[in-house]
Design brief:
Layout: H1 3-22, E1 33-35, E2 38-40, H2 51-64, H3 67-74, H4 79-93, H5 95-98, H6 112-119, H7 126-149, H8 152-157, H9 161-180, H10 185-188, H11 190-205, H12 207-213, H13 217-223, H14 228-240, H15 258-264, H16 267-270, H17 275-280, H18 282-309, H19 319-336, H20 348-358, H21 368-383, H22 386-392, H23 396-418, H24 422-438, H25 440-455, H26 466-469
Antiparallel strand pairs: 1-2
Helix pairs in contact: 2-21, 3-4, 4-21, 6-9, 7-18, 7-19, 9-23, 9-24, 9-25, 11-12, 11-14, 11-23, 14-23, 18-20, 24-25
Length: about 475
């Protein structure tokens, strides 16, 4: 047999063996290695690598880089240190699918404005970093323990619906206020933010765009890219109106300052937080956990919906396992790279996009694990490519403002729609205003008192016509 034929035979055998490893019977779960509560899946071995999702992640990493201005503005981190935090977070994103959680993880976006408000109560410098470390470590421990014991759902069920609405509404108010406060982001980039957020709202929420996108494949692709078109527009609009510089593209690999991060921006450099910071951060931890729990409910709903279309794969989503994974991520990041975006269980916008592609059949995406895992490998690659980082660097402030305003819109909408009665909505509104202006501790206290005064003794009931019946009062 010739050398060429031997090579071809070896390649064919390798393909067959690989296919046997990741292949599954109809209606069965994707292959994995059992590891206690976790299910270990490796790319190319336990699932097919989905190149379409990988390249999409390569582009969408620009959104994740929006964490950099948060870290530089609220913690005072140098750019190279901030990107080190982003890279570490990107590595930990990949462990969800690795350990059996078939989702695209992301930030705890609705809670970011509340955390900004919380850490701003401490002086810029070591104290502020310590407050962030104390918060993120406590949140991680809480999530991991609740996941390991299965108590998460029970704890949230004790929180009155009005207070849950108030936390979500408050995060929406805080997100808008962060951008429109005096001398904040809007005053720095007023024209760019106005134009870019206008495009963002139109692409994401306009009923007209929803109608026309279904008729035009290109518009459908643009609509599925989430906030990426907004960032692309900012790169052009910012310099044209004189609010940013034109990007200077550099080639090579980014050089995150890991050593500086570890020695100056973790507890090794700033010292371990005092007990008082852990105690003062508890209301913020509780508020963030309520939001986290909502993300897990959304994860379950999206995967259940996808599973109804793709009966060939049994999708196993376990909230307790998810608790343990993102809990461990938060604990680890609090030690090696405190992050103001936090470590959440879901990037909802991109999970929707991947689930929709998954619905197109096995040839489009063999397994939901492959789609989610490949996407996060793509974003991690993007963080390390200097051309991408330098392209978006001048407009990261505009990207942050757009992200916060879109999140504010969504949080306010969800918070209002979650209200079951007019009293729920009234309590939530007052609580949200206090929470956004005075912090989580005051907001939770006001919400608890109002619930006791107004709802004590009431039978829980759902009023489907809340707005219709109270429209004159409202």
């Amino acid at each position: 047999m010739s050398e060429k034929n031997e090579i071809q035979k070896s390649q064919t055998d390798l393909q067959k063996n690989s296919q046997k490893i990741w292949s599954r019977e109809y209606g069965k779960e994707q292959p994995y290695l059992p590891a206690g509560p976790f299910k270990v899946r490796l790319p190319f071995i336990h699932y097919r690598f989905e190149w379409a999702d990988y390249f999409q992640g390569l582009l969408m990493c620009a959104v994740c880089l929006g964490a950099i201005p948060m870290l530089t503005e609220y913690l005072g981190m140098p750019f190279e240190v901030a990107i080190a935090v982003v890279v570490l977070n990107g590595i930990l994103y990949c462990i969800h699918v690795l350990l059996g959680d078939p989702v695209i993880p992301g930030w705890v976006t609705p809670a970011i404005p509340l955390l900004m408000l919380h850490v701003s109560q401490f002086p810029m410098g070591p104290e502020r970093v310590q407050a962030l470390i104390a918060f993120e470590l406590t949140l991680g421990i809480l999530a991991f323990v609740l996941g390991a014991t299965g108590l998460g759902k029970k704890i949230v069920s004790f929180v009155p619906n009005a207070m849950q609405c108030g936390i979500i509404l408050g995060s929406g108010f805080a997100a808008v206020m962060v951008i429109f406060n005096k001398d904040a982001r809007f005053d720095t980039f007023p024209i760019s933010i106005t134009i870019c957020i206008g495009l963002g709202f139109y692409l994401l929420f306009s009923n007209q765009f929803k109608k026309i996108r279904s008729k035009h494949p290109i518009l459908k692709i643009i609509g599925n890219l989430g906030i990426l078109p907004v960032i692309a527009l900012a790169i052009i609009v910012g310099p044209l109106v004189g609010e940013t510089e034109w990007p200077v593209i550099e080639w090579g690999i980014t050089q995150p300052a890991f050593y500086t991060l570890f020695t100056e921006w973790t507890f090794l450099g700033v010292g371990f937080p005092p007990l008082s910071m852990f105690i003062s951060g508890l209301p913020m931890v509780f508020s963030a956990y309520i939001i986290l729990f909502g993300d897990m409910i959304q994860s379950q709903a999206l995967l259940d919906d996808a599973g109804k279309v793709r009966l060939d794969e049994k999708i196993d989503y376990n909230p307790n396992r998810s608790h343990m994974i993102f809990g461990a991520r938060n604990m680890l990041m609090s030690i090696i790279g405190p992050d103001i975006t936090m470590c959440g269980p879901l990037w909802a916008a991109m999970q929707v996009v991947v689930c929709e592609r998954f619905k197109h059949g096995r040839e489009a995406m063999d397994s939901i694990n492959g789609g989610a895992g490949s996407f996060r490998f793509g974003t991690l690659t993007g963080y390390l490519l200097l051309p991408i980082v330098t392209l978006v660097k001048p407009v990261l402030g505009i990207a942050l403002a757009s992200t916060m305003l879109i999140q504010g819109y969504v949080s306010i909408k969800v918070g209002v729609m979650k209200a079951r009665t007019a009293n729920d909505l009234g309590i939530a509104g007052v609580m949200a205003a206090v929470l956004a202006t005075r912090g989580a501790a005051w907001g939770l206290a006001v919400g608890a008192v109002l619930c006791l005064l107004i709802l004590l003794g009431n039978k829980p009931e759902y009023d489907e016509n809340i707005f219709e019946q109270n429209k004159e009062t409202i």
